[in-house]
Design goal:
three-stranded parallel beta sheet; six-stranded parallel beta sheet; 303 residues; TIM Barrel; 9 strands
């Protein structure tokens, strides 16, 4: 019995040794190693395609405000205008909760526009330009430059009339012709509209709203169109600075050399007083006007 038991034990040990030996031969014979890493599997195309992308609503770090950079996405400006139009048709003064001021220029492009742009670019100052359609046709390269460098461009009618003296059909032609000239010159379709002289009526408001445009008036008028001198223009622009202010100046419609001379001082002093200079689109995005503001009223003194 003991002899048979020993024989069985020896046979079992022999079989185990043979199995281990064969496994070792197989491993090394195939060039493998028990310590060798198995390459990670690449994700299949299906797996890669279903990898979740960032949500459209996810916030991204805000871009630095710099006109010389590429123009801000139209969706951002459009979104600000759409939110404004959800409860009002216009802005004259923003919400006054943030120390932001929007510098605006009317009646261009013109002979003084390159000098104004040079100052804004040098000082990295955003601004909003309200263009006359027939001037956009005359200076398309300046319109394209404004759009390319990130300035916001608005509609200021085709020929600068008192809109309240025109029929609804004539007003529509003025607004639409200017918008088309602006687009043809290489700028986005305008979402902001400024009535010449601040003259408008109920027909104007209806036409602008139907085109998903916001009516933009102003809270501070430098009266630079009358050429009172660079000192007075500077004083008006600086003293008009308040949270949510929209400052009216001109880069077209005549000799604007006094405006060009006053502009660096206006920019410097407003910033010294702690104001951030922004476009109208940025102003209404950051600090929209009150939902309880009164209905818009003409600023021209004419009904």
């Amino acid at each position: 019995m003991r002899r048979r038991r020993r024989q069985r034990q020896r046979a079992g040990l022999g079989i185990a040794a043979a199995v281990v030996g064969l496994a070792a031969v197989a491993a090394f014979g195939l060039g493998g190693s028990s310590s060798r890493r198995v390459p990670a599997r690449r994700p299949s195309p299906t797996t890669a395609a279903t990898t979740p992308l960032p949500s459209r609503g996810a916030r991204t770090p805000p871009a630095r405000v710099r006109p010389s950079a590429a123009a801000p996405p139209a969706t951002g400006a459009d979104g600000a205008v759409d939110r404004l139009l959800s409860y009002t048709s216009y802005v004259e003064l923003a919400g006054r909760r943030r120390r932001e001021v929007a510098l605006t220029f009317d009646d261009g492009p013109g002979a003084s526009t390159p000098a104004v742009l040079a100052i804004l670019e040098r000082t990295r100052t955003p601004a909003t330009f309200f263009l006359i359609g027939n001037h956009a046709r005359a200076y398309p390269q300046l319109v394209a430059k404004e759009a390319r460098e990130g300035f916001v461009i608005g509609d200021h009618t085709e020929s600068h009339p008192f809109l309240s003296q025109l029929s609804s059909g004539a007003q529509a032609t003025e607004i639409d012709s200017a918008a088309e000239d602006i687009r043809r010159a290489g700028a986005p379709a305008p979402r902001l509209f400024r009535p010449p002289y601040g003259s408008f009526d109920q027909a104007t408001l209806s036409l602008v709203r139907a085109r998903r445009m916001a009516l933009v008036l102003w809270s501070a008028d430098t009266k630079d169109f009358s050429r009172p001198g660079a000192r007075k223009i500077s004083y008006a622009g600086i003293s008009g600075g308040q949270p949510g202010a929209i400052v009216l100046m001109h880069d077209g419609g005549g000799d604007r050399s006094q405006t060009v001379a006053a502009l660096p001082r206006i920019i410097r002093r407003l910033r010294t007083r702690g104001f951030a200079l922004v476009t109208v689109s940025q102003l209404i995005a950051d600090d929209p006007p009150s939902r309880h503001q009164p209905p818009p009223r003409p600023l021209s003194g004419r009904p």
